[in-house]
Amino acid sequence: MEIAVVGREEFVTGFRLAGVRKVREVPGDDIAGMERVMEELMKDREVGILVVMDADFRRISPALRKAMVESVEPVVIAIGKIEEVDLRERIRNVVGVDLWK
User: Pick the residue with more confidence: 93 or 46?
Assistant: First the structure.
């Protein structure tokens, strides 16, 4: 499984430098393009974790946002807060156990 990152140039550059191979750069004003790339990566069987910037995550359509929040494979991580669901809750949903207990 691979980590994939989608977002603006300033967001994805650090991941690219860290060695993440699946990096998709999309201009911040191209929401349709951002959604298209996110949907493509959600369907990619090699992607285990999809990282997006919280600001971009909040701008996509409610239907795609809901699908991403509920996704188990890949796990979608928005850097920052995901709606009302925090990282602890996402991990509990994916793993099935609260690792902090």
Answer: 46
